[in-house]
């Protein structure tokens, strides 16, 4: 059984969470009290320590990893920790897996980043052997080939840095039954200059990574859109900014295009901190 992730969840990187276990427990309880159904851990570690802290200190909150990097997080370690958490907290953990990016991976591993799709398939084979169920995992899929693997070998897909048009195309490729849970960057700021400045600062990092750039090209963005920190056209297409209603309107576009769930990543001018105040502002929308 696939975890019940709800219609909307909250996404933040593992680095944004405090390292102190009591502080993690306090925040997890706070998020659950807001009524949020799911939290996603970006750049998660394979020991699932943060996931465990969240699950152990809540009763209903679902935790998804978005993502565990298949090059740096050994499948046997992931499977062992998944098994423990799935036993202790049935139907509340979903492993999001992905091949990451050559430019980042080769700095951390002593091997060439070659044939990532083959490595991904081998990783899924190992998880099969170790008893991780198909319903307990999903893939960070962007292009048609990996979306196909997601539909065949996992619960579904977790696209990142995309648009509602990508969601529409992904649904067509996945079919009607697979989970489709795109991430959506948002900025709760109604000042256009301020909001776009934060968005440009964020996109400057991602536009150095060919996986994302190539996917955005498939969606019709030009070299002018994808240069440096991105064009205003690109910013407005991939980042929803404004008041809560404006953000909700973009989320609704993903749902209308075929998304089952949308993972909201709140961007701020202090990206290393959890946006707890903004989460509290969004919670009524998520719950409602």
TrEMBL record:
Residues passing through the membrane, by range: none
Alphabetized SUPFAM superfamilies for the sequence: Bacterial luciferase-like
Keyword Oxidoreductase: yes
Oxidoreductase recorded as keyword: yes
Residues annotated as domain Luciferase-like: 23-261
An example Gene Ontology molecular-function term: oxidoreductase activity, acting on paired donors, with incorporation or reduction of molecular oxygen
Key words of the record: Oxidoreductase
Entries under Pfam families matching the protein: Bac_luciferase (PF00296)
Protein known as: Luciferase-like domain-containing protein
Organism listed in the record: Frankia casuarinae (strain DSM 45818 / CECT 9043 / HFP020203 / CcI3)
């Amino acid at each position: 059984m696939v975890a019940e992730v709800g219609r909307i969840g909250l996404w933040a990187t593992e680095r944004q969470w405090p390292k102190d276990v009591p502080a993690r427990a306090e925040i997890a309880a706070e998020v659950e009290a807001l009524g949020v159904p799911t939290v996603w851990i970006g750049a998660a570690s394979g020991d699932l320590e943060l996931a465990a802290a969240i699950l152990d200190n809540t009763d209903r909150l679902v935790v998804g990893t978005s993502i565990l990097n298949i090059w740096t997080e050994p499948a046997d370690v992931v499977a062992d920790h998944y098994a423990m958490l799935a036993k202790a907290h049935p139907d509340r953990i979903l492993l999001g897996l992905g091949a990451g990016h050559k430019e980042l991976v080769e700095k951390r591993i002593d091997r060439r980043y070659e044939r990532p799709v083959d490595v991904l398939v081998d990783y899924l084979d190992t998880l099969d052997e170790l008893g991780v169920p198909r319903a307990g995992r999903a893939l960070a899929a962007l292009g048609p080939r990996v979306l196909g693997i997601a539909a065949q070998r996992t619960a579904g897909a977790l696209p990142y840095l995309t648009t509602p048009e990508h969601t529409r195309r992904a649904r067509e490729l996945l079919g009607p039954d697979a989970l489709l849970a795109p991430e959506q960057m948002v900025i709760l700021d109604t000042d256009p200059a301020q909001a776009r400045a934060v968005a440009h600062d964020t996109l400057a990092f991602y536009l150095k990574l060919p996986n994302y750039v190539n996917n955005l090209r498939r969606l019709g963005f030009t070299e002018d859109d994808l240069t440096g920190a991105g064009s205003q056209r690109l910013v407005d297409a991939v980042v929803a900014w404004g008041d809560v209603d404006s953000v909700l309107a973009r989320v609704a576009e993903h749902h209308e295009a075929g998304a089952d769930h949308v993972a909201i990543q709140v961007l701020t001018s202090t990206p290393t901190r959890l946006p707890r105040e903004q989460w509290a502002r969004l919670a009524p929308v998520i719950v409602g």
